[in-house]
Amino acid sequence: MLLENRLDEQENALVEDNLEMTRLGESNEQKAKRLIKDWTDKGFLTNYQNEEGEVIYEISSHTSKLMDWVVSLKKEDYIGTESKFKTLFAQLKELVEYSNENREKRLELLRAKKMEIEHQIQQLEMGEEVEVYEDYQIEPRYNSLNKLAKELLSDFKEVDDNFKGIIKEIYGRQTDNAEKR
Predict the structure, then answer these.
(1) H/E run at residue 55
(2) Burial of 46 by CB count in 10 Å (0-12 exposed, 13-18 middle, 19+ buried)?
(3) Cα separation of 16 and 89, whole Å?
(4) Considering the chain, what is the average pLDDT of its residues?
(5) What stretch or stretches form a coiled coil here (predicted)?
(6) pLDDT digits (tens, 9 = 90+) for 72-126
(7) SS in 3 state form for 95-109?
(8) What is the pLDDT of residues 17-44, one digit of tens each?
(9) Sign of the CA dihedral 115, 120, 125, 126?
(10) How many domains does the chain divide into?
C-alpha cells in the first residue's frame, strides 16, 4: 500500500511538471485566458454575454465583499464610537417601537416624540443656537455612511449575480430543449 501511494505521488508530480512545462510556452494571451477561466471556475469572477454576444467578465460579489473586508482592515485615524452608539441606540428604540402592537404604548411614544420636537422648536424660536455637529462628530458619521453605501452596492452586485445565474440557467435549458428537437 505504501509503495502504491508513493507511485501515485510520483505520477501526480510528473503530471504537474508536464503541465508547468506546457504553461511555460504559453503566450501572455493564453495565460490570461487560462487564468480568467480558472478564476471564473473558482467563483472569483462571473461572466455573462452582453447584447452583442460578447462575454463580459466581472469580479463576483463574493470577491467584492472580500476586497471590501481587506480594505476595512486598514487602521482608522479616528474611531467614532459616539455615532455608532447613537445609531445602535436609535435602532433599538425603533425596534421596540415597531415590534410592540399595543396601540396605547405607540400613542405614548409618538406623543413623546411630538413633545421633543415642539421643545426643540420653542428653543430655536427663543433664540437658542442651532446645534450642529463638530468635525470629530461628522467624520465618523460620514465614514459609517460610506461603509453602508459600499455594503449596499455589494448587496446589489450579489443580486445582479443571482439574476445573471438565472439567465444562464434559462439559456442552458433553452439550448437543451432546442438540441432535443
Answers:
(1) strand 55-59
(2) buried
(3) 57
(4) 83
(5) 95-127
(6) 787 776 666 777 788 888 899 899 888 989 999 999 999 999 999 999 999 999 9
(7) HHHHHCCCHHHHHHH
(8) 565 656 666 778 888 888 889 899 998 8
(9) positive
(10) 2
* This model's pTM is above 0.70: no
Angle at the Cα of 73 from the Cα atoms of 67 and 78, rounded to 5 degrees: 130
Residue 111 has what pLDDT? 95
Tell me the three state secondary structure of residue 1. Answer: coil
Q: What is the pLDDT of residue 65?
A: 85
Please name the residue that has the C-alpha cell 427663543: 126
Where does a domain end: 35, 51, 70? 70
Residue 150 one-letter amino acid = K
Would residue 83 count as lying in a domain? no
C-alpha cell of residue 178: 432546442
The angle formed by the CA atoms of residues 65, 67 and 73, to the nearest 5 degrees, is: 105
Q: If DSSP codes are grouped into helix, strand and coil, which group holds residue 172?
A: helix
Whether 140 is in a domain gets the answer no
CATH number at residue 47: 1.10.10
